[in-house]
């Protein structure tokens, strides 16, 4: 009798081998951040030190890039939250002309290769005579962050019963009160999860950013420069570790926020 | 009388201009929906789509080879340029890489997804979830960087091969024409490994989702009817999981087609489509050719998506 609880050895090996392949490179980042070797990627590291963490903390260029990335990610997430929620509410709650088109539109910036979105936005900015600034980066990021919020919000709206809203209005609440007291508490965790994922996505984005940034350096652009022309490898190692930590924490939080219910928030990047 | 008072409560005018505006909008559902989708339509529908169309139109312009000025006359000359051997090589190379990455990703992802969906329980299930989500959401550049550490001459992979006395095998691989090179980090093998690593989670997730949707009753029915585990896998489970594989392949294929950073950092100096677009629009200043190059992945993905839709991949997303 075939039982589902015991797995064939070959499958187990392939699955855990795959898991190792997925996780080992990330573990390496953490090890190299403490390596005493400065000039090469020598393995095994000749020794371990925490010196480079201090050096990195003292680097103003790293802090500036980090600051810009956080600022861009925060503003784009806010924009994406507003636009994504509005669109999700409209698409989930009503039927109107062009509804299918809108749900396609929202997905397009993330379905097309980043380079196409990047070039299109760059040419749009130059056609509209918008000079490159922090705001052009924000607009680029918001464009592809909307879909993340939208996906989370639309799933939640579909599960939230419309009767709740009708009941609230029947009981005499006005539109704003209904929004504040009924709709918002119902969609709050979905928005929080979507917002965190959007933040992580924006914080990490490099391809669209290279087209919309002008001379500004976000953290991923800083990393890219280090990758193309390495200047100080130990500092890059530490920054890489910090970036993993910053992007992973929101993911874990988003997982716990959405784990009991619908599909998991991270399933569509 | 009581009826009247409750009516009055419902329709009582609310105080304040804001509340009154909101009430008015809510009483006019069409206006409400219009206002909700207006911002997104303005930004995505007009600016973004407009820019995409403008880019496509540019691909029908050409560049004057002597002055370097863009000639705004509709012509297919730029598309003709795309067919020159040098440019055609770039396209074939990129599509070949995308195909290789996609097929390997499907083979590597399937056992992971299968185990996570059918056998892993509790703690192990969480481990597999984290194991896929962590690399998926870790910074793209950090992942590329991690592979620079792995593939470096003095790095861990060479060390492992040396410890296992298999350096000859690695040297043999690297001396293979086309895919080889001086070291792993400047060969197609290196580029391929990095692509595979970066896009693998995008394959695992839809495959796992489609496997989880297959009811246990079906495989049990198959075995009750006398199918061996192998047969029930091949004839029941795999066909039902196939739309998930196709859905995953949309991501791995499309993402590899458009990427220009991985081959720039790990690989030899031969260009991929993304790099060609980047250099043509940047240093070379040949926007029409850059635009024509971007049309290639759009057309390929259009055909791909059309085929995927026929196989039911969209229901698996």
Descriptive notes:
The complex is a heterodimer of chains A (269) and B (317). Chain A has 269 residues and is an all-alpha fold. Chain A contains eleven helices and no strands. In chain A, helix 3 packs across helix 10 (219-228), helix 4 crosses helix 6 and helix 8 runs antiparallel to helix 11. The longest helix of chain A has 34 residues, at 60-93. Chain B has 317 residues and is mainly α. In chain B, 42% of the residues are buried. The model of chain B is unreliable at 1-9 (pLDDT under 50). The chains are: A mainly alpha (269), B mainly alpha (317).
What brief labels describe this structure?
heterodimer; A: 269 residues; mainly alpha; 11 helices; 0% strand; disordered C terminus; B: 317 residues; 15 helices; 2 strands; 75% helix; 1% strand
The number of distinct β-strands of chain B equals 2
Number of strands of chain A: 0
Residue share in β-strands of chain A: under 5%
Global outline of chain B: globular
Q: Sheet bearing the most strands of chain B, described?
A: 2 strands, antiparallel
* Global Rg of chain B: 27 Å
What share of the residues of chain B lie within helices? over 70%
Radius of gyration of chain A: 23 Å
Major sheet summary line of chain A: none
Count of runs of 4 or more consecutive helical residues of chain B: 15
Structural class of chain A: mainly alpha
The parts of chain A where pLDDT drops under 50 for at least 5 residues are: 261-269
Largest protein-protein interface:
A-B, 87 and 101 residues
Mean pLDDT across the residues of chain B is 84
End-to-end Cα distance of chain B, whole Å, is: 56 Å
Can you give the helix content of chain A as a percent range? over 70%
Walk across the major sheet of chain B and give the strand order: 1-2
Class inferred from helices and paired strands of chain B:
mainly alpha
Which strand-content bin applies to the residues of chain B? under 5%
Quaternary structure of the protein? heterodimer
């Amino acid at each position: 009798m075939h039982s589902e609880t015991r797995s064939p050895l070959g499958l187990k090996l392939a699955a855990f081998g795959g898991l190792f392949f997925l996780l080992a490179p990330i573990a390496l980042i953490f090890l190299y951040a403490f390596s005493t070797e400065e000039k090469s990627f020598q393995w095994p590291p000749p020794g371990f030190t925490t010196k480079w963490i201090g050096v990195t903390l003292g680097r103003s260029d790293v802090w500036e890039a980090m600051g810009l990335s956080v600022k861009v990610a925060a503003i784009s997430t806010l924009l994406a939250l507003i636009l994504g929620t509005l669109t999700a509410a409209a698409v989930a709650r009503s039927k109107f002309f062009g509804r299918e088109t809108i749900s396609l539109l929202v997905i397009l910036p993330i379905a097309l290769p980043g380079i196409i979105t990047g070039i299109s936005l760059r040419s749009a900015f130059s056609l509209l005579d918008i000079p490159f600034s922090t705001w052009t980066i924000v607009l680029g990021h918001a464009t592809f962050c909307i879909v993340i919020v939208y996906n989370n919000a639309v799933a939640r709206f579909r599960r939230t019963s419309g009767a709740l809203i009708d009941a609230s209005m029947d009981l005499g609440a006005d539109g704003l009160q209904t929004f504040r007291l009924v709709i918002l508490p119902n969609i709050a965790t979905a928005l929080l999860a979507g917002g965190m994922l959007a933040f992580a996505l924006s914080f990490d984005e490099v391809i669209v950013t290279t087209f919309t940034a002008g001379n500004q350096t976000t953290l991923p652009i800083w990393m890219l420069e280090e990758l193309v022309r390495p200047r100080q490898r130990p500092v890059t190692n530490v920054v890489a570790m910090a970036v993993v930590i910053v992007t992973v924490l929101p993911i874990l939080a988003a997982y716990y926020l959405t784990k009991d219910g619908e599909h998991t928030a991270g399933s569509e990047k | 009388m009581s009826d009247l008072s409750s009516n009055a409560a419902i329709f009582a005018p609310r105080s304040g201009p804001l509340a009154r505006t909101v009430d008015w909008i809510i009483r006019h559902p069409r206006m409400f929906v219009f206002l909700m989708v207006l911002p997104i339509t303005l930004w995505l529908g007009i600016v973004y789509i407009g820019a995409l169309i403008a880019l496509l139109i540019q691909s029908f312009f050409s560049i004057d080879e002597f002055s370097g000025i863009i000639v705004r006359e509709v012509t297919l000359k730029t598309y003709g340029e795309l067919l020159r051997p040098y440019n055609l090589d770039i396209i074939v190379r990129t599509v070949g890489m995308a195909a290789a990455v996609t097929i390997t990703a499907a083979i590597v992802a399937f056992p992971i997804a299968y185990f996570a969906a059918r056998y892993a329980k509790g703690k192990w299930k969480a481990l597999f979830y984290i194991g896929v989500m962590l690399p998926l959401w870790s910074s793209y550049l950090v992942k590329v960087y991690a592979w620079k550490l792995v593939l470096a001459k003095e790095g861990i992979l060479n060390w492992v091969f040396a410890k296992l006395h298999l350096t000859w095998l690695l040297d043999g691989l690297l001396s293979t024409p086309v895919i080889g090179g001086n070291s792993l980090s400047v060969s197609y093998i290196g580029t391929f490994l990095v692509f595979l690593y970066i896009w693998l989670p995008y394959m695992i997730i839809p495959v796992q989702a489609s496997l989880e949707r297959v009811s246990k009753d079906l495989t049990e029915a198959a075995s009750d009817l006398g199918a061996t585990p192998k047969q029930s896998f091949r004839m029941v489970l795999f066909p039902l999981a196939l739309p998930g594989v196709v859905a995953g392949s949309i991501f791995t294929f499309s993402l590899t087609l458009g990427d220009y950073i991985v081959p720039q950092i790990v690989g030899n100096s031969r260009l991929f489509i993304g790099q060609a677009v980047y250099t043509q629009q940047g240093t070379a200043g040949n926007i029409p050719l850059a635009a024509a190059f971007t049309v290639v992945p759009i057309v390929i993905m259009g055909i791909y998506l059309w085929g995927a839709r026929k196989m039911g991949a969209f229901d698996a997303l």
